[in-house]
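Researcher: We plan to redesign the surface later, but first we want a full-length starting point. Tokens attached.
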């Protein structure tokens, strides 16, 4: 049987939190407090800072003791730089990494929208859709690195006011404020475990959640206690399965829990592996294919 029906089981997981909000809403500060609530040790927190050392501004919240770590990403804000920074944090022995902000990888110089614009120019086509072919794999790689990281990851995302043009009763065009739009590629909220949307009063609305103790639409004041509560839920699952190849914990991937990834790779490769090791394995089916086989007509 390949369906593998089994008892629903939630495994321990690492946090994938997005905090969106307009500038001045306190994204960095909230992220730091939540991170501290999770690990209880400032020296186990690293900030990947894209905003010209803004992460250093909050150094005071550590009190007199150990400080959190910060590193800079400067323009151009290529996805590759984010991957390298994340990797460095993973090797630095920290527990929580704050990517502040992810928006730069999307809208800033050298980011994914810039890469798209370059591809449009190169392809000399008015059809910008085909140019996404250059961008999507880079975008995917960045999001996957966040989703499969062995660290808790908090991403901040800037949101801007969105307007729409409408006609009023007399037929005159009016500009209407629609709401706040997070500045990153659509769909990020589906990939994260939970999303907090901050307003100018530093209040956060839970705008997306897979965490039962944080229901959607709840309004909270982000603080260390928030991180503690998140951590309790994340740690309340069963033990995380480990990879038979590298021995690391298997992480949840997209909508699959760690247990589901373990089951899936067990079926596909004959052993449970993490997504990183799994991507290196190729399915070998000696019965059906031959190196010399003529390519079949796809139609
Ligand atoms: Zn592995």
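Model: Full-length starting sequence:
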């Amino acid at each position: 049987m390949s369906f593998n029906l089994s008892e629903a089981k939630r495994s321990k997981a690492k946090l994938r939190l997005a905090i969106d909000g307009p500038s001045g809403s306190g994204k960095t500060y909230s992220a730091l407090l939540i991170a501290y609530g999770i690990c209880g040790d400032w020296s186990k927190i690293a900030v990947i800072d894209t905003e010209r050392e803004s992460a250093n501004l909050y150094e005071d919240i550590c009190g007199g003791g150990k400080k959190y770590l910060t590193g800079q990403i400067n323009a151009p804000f290529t996805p590759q730089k984010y991957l390298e920074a994340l990797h460095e944090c993973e090797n630095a022995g920290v527990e929580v990494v704050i990517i502040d902000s992810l928006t730069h990888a999307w809208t800033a110089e050298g980011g994914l929208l810039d890469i798209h614009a370059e591809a449009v120019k190169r392809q000399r086509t008015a059809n910008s859709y085909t140019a996404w072919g250059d961008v999507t794999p880079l975008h995917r790689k960045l999001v996957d690195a966040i989703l499969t990281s062995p660290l808790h990851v908090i991403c901040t995302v800037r949101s801007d006011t969105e307007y729409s043009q409408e006609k009023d009763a007399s037929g005159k065009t009016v500009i209407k404020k629609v709401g706040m739009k997070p500045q990153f590629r659509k769909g990020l909220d589906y990939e994260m475990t939970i999303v907090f949307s901050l307003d100018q009063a530093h209040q956060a609305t839970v705008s997306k959640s897979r965490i039962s103790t944080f229901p959607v639409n709840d309004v909270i004041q982000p603080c260390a206690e928030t991180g503690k509560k998140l951590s309790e839920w994340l740690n309340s699952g069963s033990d995380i399965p480990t990879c038979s190849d590298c021995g690391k914990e298997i992480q949840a991937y997209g909508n699959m829990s760690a247990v589901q990834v373990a089951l899936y790779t067990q079926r596909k490769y004959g052993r449970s592996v993490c997504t990183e090791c799994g991507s290196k394995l190729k399915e070998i089916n000696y019965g059906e294919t031959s190196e010399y086989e003529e390519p079949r007509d796809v139609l």
